[in-house]
Amino acid sequence: MTSTLLTEEQQALVETTLDFAQDHLAPHALDWDRDKHFPVDVLRKAAGLGLGGIYVREEAGGSGLTRSDGVLVFETLASGCPSIAGYLSIHNMVAWMVDHYGDAAQRERLLPRLCAMDDLASYCLTEPGAGSDAAALTTRAVRDGDDWVLTGVKQFISGAGASQVYLVMARTGCDGPDGISVFLVDKDDPGLTFGPNERKMGWNAQPTRQVVLDSVRLPADRLLGRVGDGFRIAMSGLNGGRLGIAACSLGGARSALDRSLAHLADREAFGQRLLDAQALRFRLADMATELAAARALVQQAAQALDRADPQAPHLCAMAKRFATDTGYSVADRALQLHGGYGYLSEYGIEKIVRDLRVHQILEGTNEIMRVIVARGLTEALG
Fold first, then answer.
1. Catalytic residue at 363?
2. Which tens digit of pLDDT belongs to each residue from 41-65?
């Protein structure tokens, strides 16, 4: 991260976040991964720094930061643990959606506890039969008097079982995107249950479970926004979520690159430091250059989102695709540079590779990011 491009406030934000990542995330990341431990206490310490409501307005208890600030935060956090940084990105996506689309009563009821991370949040869009084709979701909300009754299953939900607030997309009308609405479901609502914790390749420091809604009855004030606006609300939340995950990829990959530099400086072969071998130096140069290019694209997309540029959704898709592909590639090359040591869990590189791999899938697969970008190009032609 080039500090000369940051304002004084942003530099202070990065330094504070880096101290937190080095003190509270990095020393425990391998143990959390091994034990599949979700460190809720550490998340609440992060909230004490204002990281539980990064984009939430200050009068609601948030930090009122910009997307340009947020990508700095998530890149820095991910240098300590991409899994925990990734969950914080999702939690902040939900908190922003409540702040942006909620009414005064919803904001007053939910945001103080979300910003303090006394309550954690989960985003529930994906279903067993509706992943990339999110508009085909089948979870249904039926009006019954003054209430809504929700029935369906959500799949791959980060934080499920530990979270208190579930932002659930459900069908209230016709097929397709126009028939979807958003509901705020509480962990204690009767009829809400969870599947077993999924056994995953990475992201082991946070739970991933099914969210099962069996005739969950909600009062009318649990509707977020208007009936039928759910798909638009869900997609607008994902614009920011994609930037968060892109930034997490940058942070994890940057950590892998830093570890590679240290490893090559410390190891010798054929009478010289590995770091002095030109072929290896060129690999490092390529990795650093690609990360710098990805970071520039992420920052450009964040600035576009901050100013509500009509091109922001396409830029966010570009940034998510490029940064997550680049981050995984850099981490994988870092493992190779470590030789056999990279394959050992104690060195931490293989964990970064495992954690970053899912970033190419979640918040919209990178294939869907290409669809979004291509659609923007063709729409420009008229």
1. yes
2. 999 999 999 999 999 999 999 999 9
